Amino acid sequence: MKILVLNGSPKKDKSDTMHMTRAFVDGMNSACENEVTVIDVIDRHIEFCTGCFQCKHNGGVCILDDDMTAIIDRFVTSDVVIFNFLLYAYGMPAPLKNLVDRLMPLSSWKMSRDEDGRYGHSTYRDLSALRYVMICGCGYPNAKHNFEGAVKQFLLKFPVNSTVITVPESPMFNIPQAANFVQPRLKALKEAGDEYADSFTIDEALYQEICSPMIPEEIYAAFANGERE
Ligand SMILES: Cc1cc2nc3c(=O)[nH]c(=O)nc-3n(C[C@H](O)[C@H](O)[C@H](O)COP(=O)(O)O)c2cc1C
């Protein structure tokens, strides 16, 4: 399969959350042979969408000449696109959100309503086989009142073929002393990647384990506040 990883962390390969995505992709690679491309979004020249809508009338050509042309080419020819990001103000970091905005040329002006009453623009290309994975971390100790906005936005933008993985306490992935708690989580993510590559699903118990805090939230908060050695 062709896998495109869009790394939304400005910390690039030093990112806390990329530890999770690397484990998931390792798992996918153990299930089958893949061609993996990782794009550190912060390094790419991506202008802001000007909202001119010309792309919606001209067959999907953006007026801006920057790295988005190549990124869209890679996006539409992928089998799986993995969005790796951390919460910034309860949503995607701005550079990644900007990239998502610039996917505008994929769809035409024409809009239609589905059985659920939801409107959407029709796409210029058949993207029905494309699969989307969101792997998201955050600095707070739990998921409640934290990931909801980002998850909702992702699922509204990519409503079909989407899988969402959220893991709290993600700065732990970059703390060597936390290895005893982090390694089992990375192992679980690898297992999930293996299953996903096989069936595009993840076993529910494994999924719940992955999305839970790695250590009790009170202990994490106490460490973060410097109250424990
Ligand atoms: C500008 C900014 C905004 C953040 N907003 C949130 C937030 O809304 N919720 C949260 O739990 N963590 C938040 N964090 C913490 C990061 O999500 C956390 O440090 C994450 O592990 C960093 O991941 P990375 O190393 O992959 O970039 C924020 C961090 C920054 C720098």
Structure description:
With about 230 residues, this protein is α/β, with parallel strands linked by helices. The protein has a single domain, classed as Rossmann fold (3-Layer(aba) Sandwich). Helix content is about 35%, strand content about 20%. The protein is built from 7 helices and 7 strands; from the N terminus they run E-H-E-H-E-H-E-E-E-H-E-H-H-H. The strands form 2 sheets. Strands 2-1-3-6-7 form a 5-stranded parallel beta sheet, with helices on both faces. Strands 4-5 form a two-stranded antiparallel sheet. Helix 4 links the parallel strand 6 and strand 7. Helix 1 packs across helix 5. It starts with a strand and ends in a 5-residue tail after the last helix. About 30% of the residues are buried. The model has no long low-confidence stretch (mean pLDDT about 95). Bound molecules: flavin mononucleotide. The site of flavin mononucleotide (FMN) has 17 residues, from helix 1.
